[in-house]
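To fix ideas, we close by showing one paired sequence and structure record:
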Amino acid sequence: MKDIIKNKIWFQARLLIAASTFLTLSLASGPVRADDLAQKNAAELAEIEKAVQAFSPDPRYAHDPFILITLQEAIAAKHEQSGGIGACLVRESTGEIVTRGHNRQFSPYFRSDLHAEMDLMNRYEDRIQALRTEGNPRRVEGLVLFSSVEPCPMCLTRIINFGVAKTYYAAPDPTGGMVHKMNDLPPFWKEAAEGRIYAEADCSPALKALAARLFAHGRRNIKTKQ
């Protein structure tokens, strides 16, 4: 029964992303004035932010508290005019939020590498620099990485190198995500990823939907900038 529910959630999330992508293309091709589009984007972001602020984690879904953090970070990214994706590192034994991060591609200046997961890992590695030892440079034991959206190829290979044993995401990305295409990784990266978990988070359908909306909203704004 649980598998049926999860499959239904998986299908619904993909439908939502497909609908969001269609809306993105429609807006891009239609005769919409820039100021009208900006107002529409601002109103949509305010609506999403209100929903995130009002959301209470559902105890039936173990990952709700952590995905909620990633959505808060995604909203922060949107307010900085970057892509709507957030991430966090969690100590599995205690539920402690160790580090938070979000997409910073357009703030304070353009950085093509600063996807949410990259920002998160940079912050963690910079923070523990003084604690590193020769025998254990990574120090990621017991940490779990959560992202609001399925990691892209760049971020997934960095996550593999980063060394965490578990990575979860809220919204799948059928066109840009790499987790569902793990078998297409070069042999070196596939071997390095063996024995680890890269999967959709056990979170509420409402959070998956909000993550997908933030992701689509971010893609619209980034398209406008190019």
User: Anything to note?
Assistant: The longest strand covers residues 96-102. The beta strands are 86-91, 96-102, 143-149, 166-171, 197-200. Confidence is low (pLDDT under 50) at residues 220-226.
